[in-house]
Design brief:
Peptidase_M24B_aminopep-P_CS, Peptidase_M24B, hydrolase, 3-stranded antiparallel β-sheet, 10 helices, Creatine Amidinohydrolase, Chain A, domain 1, Creatine Amidinohydrolase, elongated, Pept_M24, Xaa-Pro peptidase family protein, 6-stranded mixed β-sheet, alpha+beta, 2 domains
Length: about 400
């Protein structure tokens, strides 16, 4: 890993409150994009129960919610309350004030049984929609079999049949392309990760005698000190032979002179995640460590160079994997090259050998090849970047030369 953090804006330079959701017109535009998708599917309404998707479409961040989105209705004064007549948000009494503040342009119902509440309310106000039968889409990836059965049982008492239609990827497709505000939040989260790692190294907290768990907790606390609202995932600190385990969880194993140390971590700002991996050597690097590191770095550079709008995730994976394959180490690169990043740290689009569809401009993805020698150690290098028409805009700025600490 490189010697210093280059080109990183000081996380303390701006004290703007990034925890607030984007302006309501952005949420309304997102809902209209999903409405277009619903019309294309021939489904008149959708119940959104994935809380990340509820947040994306309304700004509401509570832990219990359901959203009803009607395909043929959008912004405009609604006599029932709210300015978007085709959207109803349900949550429970813990979030009455929060819902009013975070989602002021939609109608809010207070009812713990959120999914049934938004449908019962709609059918009560628009009985014409169930004169014969109603087709209601639901998020198949977010609703459990038990919840689906319970909802179907509740709806069985409706005057006419309600056909529950499983849909996948409707909101997620809209989330693929990030707007400028979303990219700014991800960039801010990346800058926090850069600054936290810089401080960890500067204060000597990554040193022989420390445990993986101690280093992980210190790195996480530094991210909080630089303005993170949460950590993106459990920080990976993997020393020595543990660095050959791609998703090793920190233990009380002690860092030793000569160890490879792999660090995979991320911050959250305004709900948006960052993701970065750097690998260093403690004390002195031997020829094996230098060779593995150089190989992974070449592969990572090839992957980053392949990223641009219009290519597939499989194309990018192939470019990086070819470098490792040519070195005879293909069997030691055991995972996909990367993934999308946004409100979830792992989301669409995938960057892997099985990925289909092209990467759109404005998508945010990772490129993270790794080579793992069981019992000896492994190296992974990962950046978060924005897909642009002319190539990749790298958001994680920590340098990638091999660093010996």
């Amino acid at each position: 890993m490189a010697g210093s953090v280059c080109g990183v804006t000081d996380p303390h330079a701006s004290r703007a409150d990034h925890s607030h959701p984007p302006a309501q017109h952005l949420h309304a535009g997102r809902r209209d994009a999903v409405r277009s998708a619903l019309r294309a599917h021939g489904v008149p309404m959708l119940v959104v129960t994935d809380l990340v998707n509820v947040r994306y479409l309304t700004g509401f961040t509570g832990s219990n919610a359901a959203l009803l989105l009607v395909a043929d209705e959008s912004a405009g004064e609604s006599p029932a309350g709210g300015t978007d007549g085709g959207t109803v948000l349900a949550t429970d009494g813990r979030y009455t004030e929060q819902a009013a503040q975070q989602a002021p342009d939609v109608r809010v119902l207070i009812d713990r049984d959120c999914t049934h509440a938004v449908l019962a309310d709609r059918f009560a106000r628009r009985p014409d929609e169930v004169a014969d039968a109603a087709r209601v889409g639901f998020e198949a990836a977010a609703m459990s079999v038990a919840d689906h059965a319970a909802l179907a049982d509740r709806l069985a008492s409706s005057p006419t049949a309600v056909d529950l239609v499983p849909l996948t990827g409707v909101v997620e497709s809209a989330r693929l392309v990030k707007d400028d505000g979303e990219i700014a939040l991800i960039a801010r989260a990346c800058a926090i990760g850069d600054a936290a790692l810089r401080d960890l190294l500067a204060e000597g907290a990554l040193a022989p005698g420390r445990t993986e768990r101690q280093v992980a907790r210190r790195l996480e606390w530094l991210m909080f000190e630089h303005g993170a609202e949460a950590i993106a995932f459990e920080t990976i600190i993997a020393c020595g032979a543990n660095s050959a385990i791609p998703h090793h969880r920190p233990t009380d194993d002690v860092l030793r002179h000569g160890d490879l140390v792999k660090m995979d971590f991320g911050a959250v700002v305004g709900g948006y995640n960052s993701d970065m991996t750097r690998t260093v050597v403690l004390g002195e690097a031997d020829a094996f460590q230098r060779d593995v590191y150089a190989l992974v770095r070449r592969a990572q550079e090839a992957g980053v160079a392949a990223v641009r709008a219009g290519v597939t995730g499989a194309d990018v994976d192939r470019a990086a994997r070819a470098v490792i394959d040519e070195a005879g180490a293909g069997r030691l690169f055991t995972h996909g090259l990367g993934h999308g990043v946004g409100l979830r740290v792992h989301e669409a689009p995938p960057v892997s050998s099985g990925a289909t569809g092209t990467l759109p401009a404005g998508a945010v993805v990772t490129v993270e090849p790794g080579v793992y020698h069981a019992g000896r150690g492994g190296v992974r290098i990962e950046d978060t970047l924005v897909v642009r028409d002319g190539g990749a805009e790298i958001l994680t700025r920590t340098g990638k030369e091999l660093r010996v600490v």
